[in-house]
């Protein structure tokens, strides 16, 4: 999860707080940052999730603080992989563990006939499936 900045330095992904129009604060957004020129850019794979989240709360009156990892599985997984408690665990194992957790949630949501919840869990599973094809965590 690295790329080269236009200045020549290597950019790495960090979880940052993004503030939208001084109104919506979103914690734990994966952002490429450059140690050389301090350029930054939102990680491309989460851009859609981020704009969806912002548009969902755009009309909210007043200030708001959101946690991106509740919307974005990639943010959740990066945060977990960076957590000291899981440092010794291979990333694939963290991902597999999360998938099992979500599948359990899906079963529970379905048995409670909570369609909204089931839909949310399906969306998260879909996110992981699309990330695991594009993201190399190492
Ligand atoms: Zn740079």
Question: What features would you describe in this structure?
Answer:
It comes from Paenibacillus residui. It is a single chain. With 138 residues, this protein is an alpha+beta fold. It has one domain (2-134). Helix content is 45%, strand content 22%. Strands 1, 2, 3, 4 and 5 form a five-stranded mixed sheet that branches. A hairpin with a 6-residue loop joins strand 3 (24-33) and strand 4. The longest helix has 21 residues, at 91-111. The protein is globular. The N and C termini lie close together (7 Å). The model has no long low-confidence stretch (mean pLDDT 89). It binds zinc ion (ZN). The site of zinc ion has 7 residues, from loops.
Concise summary:
The chain starts with a strand and ends with a helix.
Give a quick account of the main beta sheet: strands, pairing sense, barrel closure: 5 strands, mixed
Cα distance spanning the termini: 7 Å
**What small molecules does this complex bind?**
zinc ion
- The averaged pLDDT comes out at 89
**Low-confidence runs of at least 5 consecutive residues:** none
The rough form would be described as globular
Radius of gyration (CA) equals 16 Å
- Secondary-structure element series: EEEEHEHHH
Task: Note the beta-strand portion.
Answer: 15-25%
Structural class based on helices, strands and sheet pairing? alpha+beta
Count of DSSP helices?
4
Helix content: 40-55%
Number of domains: 1
Q: What's the count of strands?
A: 5
Organism: Paenibacillus residui
Protein name: YgiT-type zinc finger domain-containing protein
């Amino acid at each position: 999860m690295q790329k080269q900045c236009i200045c020549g330095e290597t950019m790495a992904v960090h979880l940052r707080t993004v503030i939208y129009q001084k109104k919506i604060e979103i914690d734990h957004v994966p952002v490429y940052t450059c140690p050389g020129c301090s350029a930054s850019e939102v990680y491309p794979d989460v851009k859609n999730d981020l704009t969806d989240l912002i548009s969902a709360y755009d009309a909210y009156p007043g200030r708001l603080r959101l946690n991106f990892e509740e919307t974005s599985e990639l943010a959740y997984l990066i945060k977990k992989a960076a957590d000291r408690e899981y440092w010794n665990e291979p990333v694939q194992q963290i991902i597999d563990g999360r998938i099992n957790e979500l599948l359990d949630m899906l079963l529970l949501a379905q048995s409670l006939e909570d369609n909204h919840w089931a839909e949310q869990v399906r969306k998260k599973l879909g996110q992981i499936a699309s990330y695991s094809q594009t993201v190399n965590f190492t």
